[in-house]
Write a structure and sequence with these properties.
By secondary structure, the protein is mainly β. The protein has helices at 17-31, 62-65, 193-201, and strands at 32-39, 44-51, 57-60, 68-75, 79-89, 94-99, 113-114, 123-130, 133-142, 150-153, 164-166, 172-177, 187-192.
Length: 214
């Protein structure tokens, strides 16, 4: 259970676009889970969540888990686990989850770290679950007038709210997917990593996100 999966990544500076996208998918599959939410009105909502530290805490979008009566998180290589909402901020649209059965345990899986800068032109990979399958797409960060939103353009596949968006080195979190995107959409709004950091630091006793360094 939750043993690291061996995988090899291409040298990021030598990889073609196709290789980079394949590598992003392989890496983000290790950190991203499929969230199923049973809501108090008896409807079901799905989304994504991801590891940001070496405990079994996950980040997602707050609207994904809003009005939840129960939550489960599926990692395709590891199984299905119950989760609870530890804290939620509807203004920032961020929520902190914990995998209930793994209280107090640590893992040796990869996890994402804070990327403090995300200028326009940055290559971004977005990962999310669509119909229970992980999809990963590549885009470019564009200008945004909203300091609480990063916009990624030129995406051409499906994804799900709450999933991570990383830079070319895969482990550096640029933001959290705010909305789903599909083949007819070419602009994906993200919750910036700096807002993620602010959200986590609001509880100094909770898990924090490390800063990504080369």
């Amino acid at each position: 259970m939750f043993q690291p999966t061996n995988f090899t990544l291409t040298n990021v500076f030598l990889a073609t676009k196709e290789q980079a996208l394949q590598d992003a998918h392989k890496f983000l599959k290790q950190v991203t889970g499929f969230v199923t939410v049973n809501r108090i009105d008896n409807t079901v909502k799905t989304g994504s969540a991801f590891f940001f530290c070496n405990s079994f805490h996950l980040l997602t979008a707050a609207h994904v888990v809003q009005d939840a009566s129960s939550i489960s998180v599926t990692f395709p290589d590891h199984g299905i686990f119950n989760a609870t909402v530890i804290r939620s901020d509807t203004r920032l649209d961020l929520a902190l989850l914990h995998m209930t059965e793994l209280e107090g345990q640590m893992h040796s899986l990869p996890y994402l770290k804070l990327a403090p800068e995300c200028p326009p032109g940055t290559i971004a990979f977005c990962a999310g679950f669509y119909q229970s399958r992980l999809h990963c797409t590549e885009g470019i960060v564009t200008n945004s007038d909203d300091p609480h939103t990063i916009v990624v353009s030129n995406l051409s596949d499906n994804g799900t709210s709450g999933g991570p968006s990383t830079g070319r080195l895969f482990r550096n979190l640029l933001g959290v997917i705010r909305e789903d995107f599909g083949t007819t959409h070419h602009r994906t709004p993200l919750i910036p990593a700096l807002d993620v950091d602010h959200f986590l630091r609001a509880d100094p006793n909770g898990p924090q996100m490390e800063v990504f360094r080369l």
